[in-house]
Design brief:
The complex is a heterodimer of chains A (117) and B (111). Chain A is an all-beta fold. Chain A has no helices and eleven strands. Classes of the chains: A mainly beta (117), B mainly beta (111).
């Protein structure tokens, strides 16, 4: 398996522009997570999906952020309009929860480094 | 509110000098404590999951232990390739299946 795939790996944009980050989870995984990592705040959960349905979006900073998961193999995180304070590394992770054992190891993608000028 | 605090923020060791990283947590109903390793420019890589106090897990030079309030990641005779940021995370009842991460300890091992 190729693991979690994210694109682009690097994105540089100007304030006010729309940014779309993409993620392909590991095949067969039923949970997908979007995280943001900064030096100041560390790794923060933005939103997560179970079977393509958003479960908890309380970590989404404001209405400029939106996420979708149209099918089991693809998700997007969109920022519109982007602002300099959105600059961070955005990670996607997926997992396969096993109720019998509570096993829920999350596998992370390589991340997208976003710079908003 | 679920919370994870890691210490120290940074640790510098000589090759072969054993030490421990600390992860203190407060969580409503622990459903797993996770250790990840993160190399520069990469995503976190899973190391261990611990579920109950007294549990221990080992992998090469790393050993993770868990009490009711904290976890330790012991590094025995570290090598330069162990240099990375080590992240601790918890999953509790309130967070569903989401993880709450600490800010990490950055370990540097010099030869």
């Amino acid at each position: 398996d190729a693991g979690v795939i994210q694109s682009p790996r690097h994105e540089v944009t100007e304030m006010g522009q729309e940014v779309t980050l993409r993620c392909k989870p590991i095949s067969g995984h039923d949970y997908l997570f979007w995280y943001r990592q900064t030096m100041m705040r560390g790794l923060e959960l933005l939103i997560y999906f179970n079977n393509n349905v958003p479960i908890d979006d309380s970590g989404m900073p404001e209405d400029r952020f939106s996420a979708k998961m149209p099918n089991a193999s693809f998700s997007t995180l969109k920022i519109q309009p982007s602002e300099p304070r959105d600059s961070a590394v955005y990670f996607c992770a997926s997992s396969n929860y096993e109720a019998a054992t509570s096993y829920n190891e999350q596998f992370f993608g390589p991340g997208t480094r976003l710079t908003v000028l | 509110e679920d919370q994870v605090t890691q210490s120290p923020e940074a640790l510098r060791l000589q090759e072969g000098e054993s030490s421990s990283l600390n992860c203190s947590y407060t969580v409503s109903g622990l459903r797993g404590l996770f250790w990840y390793r993160q190399d520069p420019g990469k995503g976190p890589e899973f190391l261990f999951t611990l579920y109950s106090a007294g549990e221990e897990k080992e992998k090469e030079r790393l050993k993770a232990t868990l009490t009711k309030k904290e976890s330790f990641l012991h590094i025995t005779a570290p090598k330069p390739e162990d240099s990375a940021t080590y992240l601790c995370a918890v999953r509790g009842n309130q967070a569903g299946t989401a993880l709450i991460f600490g800010k990490g300890t950055t370990l540097s091992v010099s030869s």
